[in-house]
Amino acid sequence: MDDGDENAAIVNALQRRADIVVQKSLAEGFGLTVAEAMWKGRPVVASRIGGIQDQIVHDETGLLLDNPADADEFGRALARLLDDPAGAAEMGRAAQQRVRDHFLGPQHLMRYVELLGRLIT
Prior knowledge:
Blueprint: H1 4-17, E1 21-23, H2 32-39, E2 44-47, H3 52-55, E3 62-65, H4 71-83, H5 85-102, H6 105-120
């Protein structure tokens, strides 16, 4: 676990093979793991906390857990996606589109340009 490049390669491989990615954080800013999984077209089950709740649209691009310590809620969320592979795949496609539309560098740059344009005029 001391090799950062090796860790990144392992995470990438796991996310690419996973049907669902889980991020049960107790505290989180912008969830890079969440964004990476969404970019790979995976539905994410994650805590409704910090920046994660801004990244995931509940029931559209993933499922948000109100209490990450609630094992029953977690189990129901996983079972819902595992029992509906077509729905989970659609959620993954919507997740990838959300990343494309909201979280890539060029979109941020264009928002700054638009903001500066409004401030100058």
